[in-house]
Amino acid sequence: MNFILHSGEYDRRHTPVRFSMPADELPEGALRVNGIPATCVIRGGEAEVRFVVPFLAAGEALPLTLEACACVPQMTCERTETGASLFMRGGRFTEYCARPDLAKPYLGPLFEAYGGQMTRLDFETREHPHHRSLWISQEANGIDFWNEPKGVHGFIRNQGISDIVCGGACAAFTANNLWTSHRGRPVMTETTRYTLYNTPREAALLDVQITYTASHGDVELGATKEAGPLAVRMAPGMSVDGGGRMVSGTGGVNEDGVWMQRAPWLDYCGTIDARACGVAILDHPGNFGFPTHWHARDGGLMAANNFLRLGAMELKQGESVGWKYRVVIHNGDTAEADIAGKFADFAEPPAVERE
């Protein structure tokens, strides 16, 4: 089975690639593409194949050959008592945690390649204690799922982890959550797919695909400055106040240059033991409100905000809305990590055709 990968107008470095084919044409067992470990997901009669191309220059075409192999999955996911853990080449990468004593789940912490913790996970702090590493929340039907005001905030309760995938190119899982009022009245459901790719550890890629569904009546997503849906809180030493720096895809720098400004991506970077490193969120052109506005602070917060400037959104019973983001967990500063190139890979991925 032969295919051709087209780079398009961009150089591609450690870029996730996906293509589909009839499931009955797949070889049996684990898969490789041009000798590169791949991950395959079968749904019905269709198979989706994913791999990470190491390099392909702009304008080039690369013949691809799909073959069976005796490969052990390098990217894995395991259920835990409170959620799921993602592993990269045998090492724990991060954890999705839905503890019953917390108002909402979080994913984290996130570490740079040499073990330095880049995102905050502090259960003792009194300064915005609801900011935990990476999370999803906002206001819905007038209920505050973000700030967690005592006695009135909403809860986001995990209903289960599903669709776990392990393989050579990526590992993934879906978190199925129910949003309720403080007294337990259902508001809506959220399903979020987390996918971690087999890239160099210095340039880790985590896709976050969020879907809200008005499964329990109409829902209004409020136009607040904490509107979400995706947020990251950096560790104190990584914040601008701690010596770090924010850079946006339109050239904005730090809070004065990025707060409530639109940009296709935002990178929050700093240093740990003199090593430059950071976390970037990439918005997708298919998302509502692209390019998103950013609720980002010098104190360490970085959040996509699709509502404060554009207004509230109504979902009628049964309707859904979704977002796709890519989170880059990187070493090097914004330029060294080529965040602009990572955005091009996400927004305009290379195309695959069958010969």
Concise structural overview:
With 355 residues, the protein is mainly β. It has helices spanning 254-258, 339-347; strands at 2-6, 12-22, 30-33, 36-37, 39-43, 46-56, 61-69, 75-80, 83-88, 91-97, 106-107, 134-136, 139-140, 143-144, 155-165, 170-180, 186-197, 203-213, 219-221, 230-233, 245-248, 265-272, 275-283, 293-296, 301-305, 313-315, 320-331, 351-354.
Structural account:
The chain has 355 residues and is mainly beta. It folds into two domains: 2-72, no CATH class; 75-347, Beta-galactosidase, Chain A, domain 5, CATH 2.70.98. Helices cover 4% and strands 50% of the residues. It contains two helices and 28 strands. It has an eight-stranded antiparallel beta sheet. A five-stranded antiparallel beta sheet has the order 4-3-7-1-28, with no helix packed on it. It is globular. It starts with a strand and ends with a strand. The model has no long low-confidence stretch (mean pLDDT 96).
Topology:
Layout: E1 2-6, E2 12-22, E3 30-33, E4 36-37, E5 39-43, E6 46-56, E7 61-69, E8 75-80, E9 83-88, E10 91-97, E11 106-107, E12 134-136, E13 139-140, E14 143-144, E15 155-165, E16 170-180, E17 186-197, E18 203-213, E19 219-221, E20 230-233, E21 245-248, H1 254-258, E22 265-272, E23 275-283, E24 293-296, E25 301-305, E26 313-315, E27 320-331, H2 339-347, E28 351-354
Antiparallel strand pairs: 1-7, 1-28, 2-6, 3-4, 3-7, 5-6, 8-9, 9-10, 10-11, 12-20, 13-14, 15-16, 16-17, 17-18, 18-27, 19-26, 20-25, 21-22, 22-23, 23-27, 24-25
